[in-house]
Amino acid sequence: MYNSLSSRRNFIKKMAQLSAMTAAAAMFPGILFASEQEAGIPNSANLDWKKGPCRFCGVGCGILVGTENGKAVAVKGDPNCSVNKGLLCVKGYHQTMCIQSKDRLTHALVKKNGKYVKTPLNEALDIVANKMKSTIEAHGKDSVAMYTSGQSTIPEGYVASKLMKGAIGTNNLDCNARLCMASAVAGFLTTFGADEPMGCYEDIDHADYFITWGNNMAEMHPVLFSRMLEQKTRRGAKIIDFATRTSRSSTASDRSILFEPQTDLAVANAICYEIINNGWVNKSFVEKHCNFSKGLTNIGYGTEDKFNFKDKPEKIDFAAFKAFLNDYTPEKVEKYSKVSAKDIKYLASIYGDPNKKVVSYWCMGMNQHTRGTWMNNLVYNIHLLTGKISQPGNGPFSLTGQPSACGTAREVGTFTHKLPKGVVMNPKHRALAAKIWKVPVERIPAKPTYHATEMFRAVDRGDIKFIWTQVTNPLVSLPKTSRYRPAMEKDSCFVVVSDVFPTPTSDVADVILPASWHIEKSGLYGNSERRTQHWDKMVEGPGETTPDAWMTIEVAKRMGYGDLFPYSEENHVEEIYNEYRQFHEGAKHGMAPLEVLKKESGAIWPYVNGKSTQWRFNAKYDPACKEGSDFDFYGKPDGKAVIWQRPYEPAAESPDAEYPFWLNTGRVIEHWHTGSMTRRIPVLHKAMPEAYIEFHPDDAKALKIRDGENIKVTSRRGSCVLPASVNKRGLPTRGQVFVPFFDENMLINDVTLDAFCPISKEPDYKKCAVKVEKA
Amino acid sequence: MPIKSYLAHPKTGEKQTLINALSLLNGCEVIPATNQDVVVVVTETSDDASDVILKDKIEHIDSLKLLALVSGFNTPQN
Amino acid sequence: MKKRLGIISLFVLLFIAFITIWNFSYQQGLEEGYIPVEESTSKHYLPSEAGVFERSEYAVEYSNMPVDKNHQRLLKDYYKNRAYHGAPPSIPHPVKEMNLGENTCLQCHQNGGFVNKYDAYAPVTPHPEMINCRQCHVAQNSNTLFKPANLAQVKAPKVGVNNALIGTPPMIPHQIQMRENCLSCHAGPAAPKEIRVTHPERVNCRQCHVPTDRVVSDIAPFTRTKSDNNE
What we know:
heterotrimer; C: 231 residues
């Protein structure tokens, strides 16, 4: 690694340098030069650094990618990005390494007589377009579907929506964000009438307490967690971890409180009970800005096909809400939540103290929950009752897991019921979409069709005969893949998969399209704090790889919708974004113009008069608020947020004598979701080569299970064999096992249950009943 | 071919500016200290005349407070 | 006569009692040894990886600490009293034989500090909870060998070559069992100069630095029955 001192000249130079260093050391004892610690690292001075957002999670860190001779050779945190201030996590630093993987999909592959044949992209796109057209002719519009992603860029999501809803005229479009953010969306809409968090990451710099609900931020949102730790050491801010598993975050927190799976509903209600009974309610805030409502109860779990549910909200008053909470005294809840009444009162006292600023963070623990929408509502209840919302350092904050779950899935609206602005059920929203898309309004159907789980059930039933997946790997990430893998293999459905690498999903495809990776195309993402981020293409992709947006456009053209997609290949990102911006014009959701996004490391919408809006619904910061108001929840017609009466209901499946353990699934810091990218990064693979099943040490002892032993975990749906992990990274509570889902060789989702929240339709990956035995 | 090394002291808070300015100059290698406000500069020029010019250029950088010569070498050209 | 009868019956009674008791205890002795197992209530466990945060309360102090240039340790010295990298270091200073298993060692090695006598900073142990120190750490009382030997030399990891890409955070080139607590060796005045971290206040070390020493056996490929023939 060291440069050999081949020439005398180099030697002299080195001498000169050393003598200067020695002189410096005499003047400043203990001086350090980077070269001593980084000897061997090649000089990075000649690199060309380009800015963009990180490819991975929803935090949306700014990165700088160093390129040399057309290859990405280095990544560093963007010091000018307010999200991460120059810091990244181990995945971020090494992200570009995956694109050089040898098994990269570089050309289209078409299955002919059971074998994949390398095919020119043009021909492959012809096949896709013809198949889509002929399927529609033979079986109707609703026999074709598209399943996209919270990793699709804004233009990719936009053209997918325009093709399906505007051109073809079917709502058969859903995305993998259904599996991660749907409950957050439903929670926001039911409580505030407007999606996405009101606060921003700057809350971290102001808060006195961080309460994380079922959220291992140290591994899943590491850069935000670092910012919290910084506040902890510098300012004495406190982190309280409320979870079902002792994770890295728990051990770094000031207090770790463990609860029994599903009982978070009861604990949240108990906190509200305490707040009300101790007189900690911010009365003037609640009177001025809140309504009370209740919905249906015993709402089911959606495990059967064609499950349908519609909530019936009913207004109630404060007295009724207070009476309802009498079932949730800390003493009653303590019995089944296994959270001591003392701890519940402690949590309530933090929220109730008017002099303490509190931010609540959550992600999959609350969203992937058969009562996910309720759980989101309940945390909003706590913040609304105490008036701790929409102010710097005070507020509930729903984190996302995908880089554009907000920007694309939620804002562009790649869900079956969504349009870029509003929902398909609303005639006004349909009219606006039809106007901008220049299509007849009747073409956009008013009824939503399949959400993610139901879409794959429809594939299994044979109702969907053509499906195109983009930027996602459902046969690793769906729940109950033991049903949906055979479903996708059926001949009744023609499967098109666009991806960068071969995955278990591309393995069942009829046509595989080679997609460009992140920095091989231009694009836009939107992160958890409503920040829209743009990047320019930095390197050329290999072979015939093409941006997903452009492949969608090419197929649309081949199907005869060319006039609706008048974009140019080299400039389509800009043209599409400018068209899309029209949907959100106005003070409530205005998006920053592209010129701004090109210059800055993202901007937070609503972007009004050249300024990002950091705290929505607070008149001090948000120009969309009614004049003369202090807070205005303008998502609701009367400007009032809703405090929901939501009870505790048990999980869809709980441990019993035959299946005595809870199964909880999740992620690890080294890998991102299904691992198709991160497992191809040598550093990350070496650090975490395979999945594992984590036991509580007492359970391991009782079952005589040693660390590293192979364990078979079985549910009513399927089984999976993994090595045991005892007392290493995390500890589930007793009676619970934890498995990360990144490993395509150990498909834990064959075991999970496809029960979902009836309101949001988001599956619960965190709770089902399993048994374990030595394999 | 003169090779010289210097210690460059930046004005308070302008270390990065100084580093940036120095790295723009041809024939100038910059080794900043990571924990002190001082930068090692090694210059390499083809002849004495250009050495004087380079030194002049360095001394005219605004963020520079003090430039101290540490060592100088000269190699015959061949 | 009566008296004699009384004495005899007393002895008979005693004899019967003896037989009964002896019999009972003999029977007892035949049973297998059995110690009732009581299910112990769950202890408070912490995952072993928690160690990374153990010294984080000193993180800010570490970052503000001036560097004592005259007493810096070098990596080369660090390895000097280890048989191979990863081996427990031997004790390079005289020690008393007393107080084994108590906190004698920890007085200096729990938090470190300057020791005048040795003109050096005491290194901080990454596992202060294990107090039977001299189970693994032994004194160096002789510089000679019993018999000469050809000891295999294990190369210790080098500094500055553990980055996967230009400028990315170096990976952890050593195993971390019992060394989960990064700051104990990588921060403070006793940390070897070359591996002293420039940003101890970051605390969550393993956010960016992950181990690379794991023995990775080849992962059996996913049975990609169909689409693997991408030539």
